[in-house]
């Protein structure tokens, strides 16, 4: 999981472009960064830490050239360090390579190269690539041919870009890792994702798996694995580059929490009509499915899927949920009558992509529910539904979770073909109710009261169960404190042993018919002297048993949990803020996880 | 000037607009359906402003979430004034975000772009400050300026009606000396005011120019003024109230509904069968007007819902208001009570603040104000000025 950028142009701005690109890609990893600029030799700089560390390191350097590559890293092979940072080079620093993905056969390749006398500086899988290219060059191959020969040896996933000393050309290839080509007025860009160069151009070519690209200041060429030139379509992407600013908030996460009412408005726009009781999602006009549904997802998206599967089951549709990394079509009854829905914010999540590819191979119909327009998931699935949340920069997912839930409610309407005007009214009321939660929340007070707790537990039943899981995940991600979420009934089957007076229990009890049962669980933890924080729409009398109450408006049994989750987002945010955590870039995590 | 930097003062609550300002500042209240501040930004960008610093304070989350980091591709920088200690203090909060000559305007008043461009053009090289001035206006509620051959000789906040002071339009161009001037004059009654800073410039013999201009200048002093603001916008043409221009494409209007111009219907609205909307109706985003309801000469803010057969005339609603089935708000004139003051014969049917929930079959006596989050049970006659979270029962 990393971000790569390449640039070649006539305007001598290569270092600026690369540094801007790395900042735009930092959400993909930030434990080290580096760049290589090609002129008569290769100038290579890399540093452990965030992009700002690299920026400081090159502040006094005069780096000149017309082409270069850069990388921001999220470690998979070898800890974060200056040595393990990309770009990597061959023995004589004549070739520099950046890579996102995992080379599965790198041990074999490395032994082979070492036997031939190549010397390695790092522990990374990537370093085999420049040495392979060098070996091919030594055999007499030209730059492009050597690059192709090296790529052909690789097994695994990769987006790779390479430059040669003295050359103006950047060579690139992709297989199961994202890579796009940008076409600017003064040069050409290669990057893992559009934010890397959106400041300069919005014209892009989406590269497909197996394709190679070659860019120099005069133009670009895309070729297939055999070297034949491919006709490519140039697309214009819609993305406001300034959307990447914090607009006065201390953190992207807080900004994104506050953007939720508007994100939901956009998600619903032109998709519901209350007076006719209709739900229509234009991307899914052709979808006519009448069979079982399987969800595949990871992390927060998995919690959204649990919610979506429940919505579908309530309409009589057979729906199951799988962790994408555990989804194995050999073990699941998946066939032509199954709809497999991949829920992924970025549309690039490697685990989810693998599950979707397996489902495609098994003959299932696949649907991507994603925020990533033009992402791998969007392109490889039979159908795509966009959640329209807008860019999310904070690593901890907030507004995209709300938009996923609302999208899943819409999808339920599409698949079941029945949604009452009452339900649609409730959906249309959500933006204002969510604004009300933001306007009136006392989550900060609650967070301050429990900032020193040893651990945090979250419970809920039915539609409130995914809220409990997501509440705990948010708390873990950004506070680094121990937090667990459970279906409320599970508490007494083990976890209760962990409950003490120093472990607050957050109980979500909304309009669900099982509220009274969760109330029983609340009394169980009260008896162990644990502080109780109730998140409730006042549909039960939980408030009288709770030490603190986080109120939410009533939005019916299906939608009130969406509001309850926002209160828990705010609690996690304020706990983490009080602890001085790196909220937008928590340690060890990255926004979009493109490795298995 | 190639690039023009503007500072917009938008940190104050606008307490006279209560109870509409319970959760958001006056700059976010709707002028027709668009926040006042958004219209201020529009005027600035139309005259060529290239970057905007917004001073925010009260309800800042709402402002930041609404506008984000840019508006019409112009970057927005937010400067935060934690405590509202006067207009001069607010400007000081923006000091570190700006450089060189700045244009300063208020974020809660609508000023025609002509006034702004006149002030920009009237700022000469020798001037330290230039102030926009309007003739023939009532100065008592606002600030006044005395002019002598185009030079400002006096600036004051609440001038006597001596016939000599003209209206300070709240549009300024300043050189950086203004910051030291504000600082050196210090606070008066706990507040540092911008006019005091200008007075300090005059005392130090700096040149302060006054530019007399003319054009639309609208300020909502009281909540019901939002109705007049919307009328002014329609009449001046700043808002095109013709149906084909002003009904959002994402709005759904039933074929049997009647839409009477001028009108504005924002995105995601639903207008049910037999409903009559307009003239002079402004429906914010995601407003629902149900079957056979009537809405005219009213400003209905986002997410509100007017129930079946309800009648809403000359009224202002906050966000998320529900007017139940069969409720009647027949319109003004009526007496409005705010604190100890009574405003007689105001054209106000009713003012329902954010998330008032009317259960239906109610009648509102003209001039009624209902505070936020109040519940009005069915079958009541509602009158007077009710505080927030009131439970109104028959």
TrEMBL record, chain A:
Job description of the protein: Catalyzes the first step in hexosamine metabolism, converting fructose-6P into glucosamine-6P using glutamine as a nitrogen source.
Gene name for this UniProt entry: glmS
Main location: cytoplasm
Subcellular location per the Swiss-Prot or TrEMBL entry: Cytoplasm
Pfam families recorded: GATase_6 (PF13522), SIS (PF01380)
SUBUNIT field: Homodimer.
Catalytic activity: D-fructose 6-phosphate + L-glutamine = D-glucosamine 6-phosphate + L-glutamate
Residues of the Glutamine amidotransferase type-2 domain: 2-218
Presence of keyword Acetylation: no
Official protein name in the record: Glutamine--fructose-6-phosphate aminotransferase [isomerizing]
Protein species of origin: Natrarchaeobius chitinivorans
UniProt-listed GO biological process terms: carbohydrate metabolic process; fructose 6-phosphate metabolic process; protein N-linked glycosylation; UDP-N-acetylglucosamine metabolic process
Active site: 2 (nucleophile), 591 (for fru-6p isomerization activity)
UniProtKB/TrEMBL annotation, chain B:
Annotated ranges, domain Nucleotidyl transferase: 6-230
EC top class named in words: transferase
Location of the Mannose-1-phosphate guanyltransferase C-terminal domain: 260-381
SUPFAM superfamilies: Nucleotide-diphospho-sugar transferases (SSF53448), Trimeric LpxA-like enzymes (SSF51161)
GO molecular-function term, one example from the UniProt record: UDP-N-acetylglucosamine diphosphorylase activity
Spans annotated as Disordered: 375-394
Keywords: Acyltransferase, Multifunctional enzyme, Nucleotidyltransferase, Transferase
Pathway per the UniProt entry: Nucleotide-sugar biosynthesis; UDP-N-acetyl-alpha-D-glucosamine biosynthesis; UDP-N-acetyl-alpha-D-glucosamine from N-acetyl-alpha-D-glucosamine 1-phosphate: step 1/1; Nucleotide-sugar biosynthesis; UDP-N-acetyl-alpha-D-glucosamine biosynthesis; N-acetyl-alpha-D-glucosamine 1-phosphate from alpha-D-glucosamine 6-phosphate (route II): step 2/2
Known EC number: 2.3.1.157, 2.7.7.23
Record flagged with keyword Nucleotidyltransferase: yes
Catalytic activities: N-acetyl-alpha-D-glucosamine 1-phosphate + UTP + H(+) = UDP-N-acetyl-alpha-D-glucosamine + diphosphate; alpha-D-glucosamine 1-phosphate + acetyl-CoA = N-acetyl-alpha-D-glucosamine 1-phosphate + CoA + H(+)
Keyword Ubl conjugation tagged: no
Pfam families given in the database record: GMPPB_C (PF25087), NTP_transferase (PF00483)
Matching PANTHER family: N-ACETYLMURAMATE ALPHA-1-PHOSPHATE URIDYLYLTRANSFERASE (PTHR43584:SF8), NUCLEOTIDYL TRANSFERASE (PTHR43584)
Protein name, UniProt field: Bifunctional protein GlmU
The species this protein was found in: Natrarchaeobius chitinivorans
């Amino acid at each position: 999981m990393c971000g790569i950028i390449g640039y070649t142009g006539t305007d001598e701005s290569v270092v600026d472009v690369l540094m801007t690109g790395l900042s735009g890609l930092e959400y993909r990893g930030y434990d080290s960064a580096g760049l290589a600029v090609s002129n008569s030799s290769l100038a290579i700089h890399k540093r452990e830490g965030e992009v700002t560390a690299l920026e400081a390191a090159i502040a006094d350097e005069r780096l000149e050239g017309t082409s270069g590559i850069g990388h921001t890293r999220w470690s998979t092979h070898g800890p974060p360090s200056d040595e393990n940072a990309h770009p990597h080079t061959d023995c004589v620093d004549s070739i520099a390579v950046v890579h996102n993905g995992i080379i599965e056969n790198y041990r074999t390749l490395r032994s082979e190269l070492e036997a031939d006398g190549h010397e390695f500086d790092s522990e990374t899988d990537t370093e085999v690539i420049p040495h392979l290219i060098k070996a091919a060059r030594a055999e007499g191959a030209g730059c492009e041919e050597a690059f192709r020969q090296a790529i052909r040896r690789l097994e695994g996933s990769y987006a790779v870009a390479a430059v040669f000393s003295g050359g103006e050309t950047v060579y690139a290839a992709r297989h199961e890792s994202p890579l796009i080509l940008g076409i600017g007025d003064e040069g050409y860009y290669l990057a893992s994702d559009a934010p890397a160069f959106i400041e300069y151009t919005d014209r892009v070519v989406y590269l497909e798996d197996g394709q190679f690209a070659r860019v120099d200041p005069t133009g670009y060429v895309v070729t297939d694995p055999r070297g034949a030139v491919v006709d490519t379509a140039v697309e214009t992407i819609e993305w406001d580059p300034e959307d990447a600013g914090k607009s006065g908030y201390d953190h992207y996460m807080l900004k994104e929490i506050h953007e939720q009412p508007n994100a939901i408005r956009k998600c619903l726009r032109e998709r519901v009509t209350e007076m006719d009781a209709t739900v229509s999602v234009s991307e899914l006009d052709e979808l006519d499915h009448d069979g079982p549904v399987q969800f595949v997802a990871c992390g927060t998206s998995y919690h959204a899927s649990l919610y979506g599967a429940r919505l579908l089951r309530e309409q009589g549709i057979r729906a199951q949920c799988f962790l994408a990394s555990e989804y194995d079509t050999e073990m699941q009854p998946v066939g032509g009558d199954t709809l497999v829905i991949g829920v992924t914010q970025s549309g690039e999540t490697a685990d989810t992509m693998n599950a979707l590819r397996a489902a495609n191979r098994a003959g299932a119909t696949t649907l991507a529910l994603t925020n990533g327009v033009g992402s791998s998931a969007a392109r490889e699935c039979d159908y795509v539904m966009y959640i329209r949340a807008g860019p999310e920069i904070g690593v901890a997912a907030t507004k995209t979770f709300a938009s996923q839930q609302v999208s899943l409610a819409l999808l339920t309407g599409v698949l079941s073909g029945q949604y009452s005007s009452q339900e649609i009214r409730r959906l249309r009321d959500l933006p204002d109710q969510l604004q009300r939660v933001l306007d009136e929340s006392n989550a900060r007070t609650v967070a301050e009261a429990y900032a020193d707790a040893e651990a945090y537990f979250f419970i809920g039943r039915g539609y409130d169960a995914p809220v409990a899981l997501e509440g705990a995940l948010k708390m873990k991600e950004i506070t680094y404190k121990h937090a667990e979420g459970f279906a409320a009934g599970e508490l007494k089957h083990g976890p209760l042993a962990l409950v003490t007076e120093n472990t607050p229990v957050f109980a979500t009890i909304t309009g669900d018919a099982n509220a009274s049962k969760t109330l029983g669980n609340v009394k169980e933890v009260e008896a162990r002297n644990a502080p109780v924080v109730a998140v409730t729409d006042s549909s039960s009398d939980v408030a009288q048993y709770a030490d603190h109450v986080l109120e939410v408006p009533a939005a019916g049994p299906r939608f009130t949990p969406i509001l309850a989750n926002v209160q828990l987002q705010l609690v996690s945010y304020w706990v983490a803020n009080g602890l001085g955590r790196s909220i937008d870039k928590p340690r060890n995590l990255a926004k979009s996880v493109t490795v298995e | 000037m190639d690039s023009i930097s503007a500072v917009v003062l938008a940190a104050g609550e606008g307490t006279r607009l209560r109870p509409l300002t319970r959760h958001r500042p006056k700059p976010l209240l709707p002028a027709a359906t668009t926040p006042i501040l958004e219209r201020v930004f529009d005027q600035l960008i139309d005259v060529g402003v290239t970057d905007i610093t917004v001073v925010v304070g009260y309800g800042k989350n709402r402002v930041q979430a609404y506008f984000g980091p840019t508006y019409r591709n112009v970057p927005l920088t937010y400067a935060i004034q934690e405590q509202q200690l006067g207009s001069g203090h607010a400007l000081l909060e923006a000091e570190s975000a700006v450089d060189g000559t700045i244009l300063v305007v208020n974020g809660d008043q609508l000023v025609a772009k002509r006034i702004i461009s006149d002030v920009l053009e009237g700022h000469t090289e020798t001037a330290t400050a230039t102030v926009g001035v309007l003739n023939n206006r009532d100065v008592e509620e606002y600030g006044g300026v005395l002019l002598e051959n185009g030079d400002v000789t006096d600036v004051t906040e609440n001038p006597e009606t001596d016939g000599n002071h003209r209206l300070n339009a709240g549009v300024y161009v300043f050189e950086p000396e203004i910051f030291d001037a504000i600082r050196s004059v210090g606070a008066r009654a706990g507040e540092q005011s911008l006019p005091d800073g200008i007075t300090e410039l005059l005392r130090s013999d700096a040149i302060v120019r006054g530019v007399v201009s003319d054009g639309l200048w609208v300020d909502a002093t009281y909540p019901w003024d939002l109705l007049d603001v919307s009328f002014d916008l329609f009449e001046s043409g700043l808002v095109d109230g013709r149906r084909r221009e002003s009904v959002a494409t994402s709005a759904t209007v039933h074929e049997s509904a009647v839409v009477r111009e001028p009108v504005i219907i924002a995105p995601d609205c639903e207008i049910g069968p037999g409903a009559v909307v307009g003239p002079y109706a402004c429906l914010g985003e995601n407003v629902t007007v149900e079957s056979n309801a009537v809405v005219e000469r009213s400003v209905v803010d986002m997410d509100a819902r007017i129930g079946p057969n309800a009648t809403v005339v000359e009224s202002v609603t906050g966000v998320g208001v529900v007017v139940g089935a069969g409720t009647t708000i027949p319109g003004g004139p009526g007496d409005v009570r705010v604190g100890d003051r009574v405003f007689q014969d105001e054209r106000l049917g009713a003012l329902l603040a954010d998330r008032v929930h009317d259960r239906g079959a109610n009648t509102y006596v003209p001039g009624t104000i209902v505070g936020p989050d109040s519940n009005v049970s069915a079958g009541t006659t509602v009158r007077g000025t009710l505080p927030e979270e009131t439970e109104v029962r028959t």
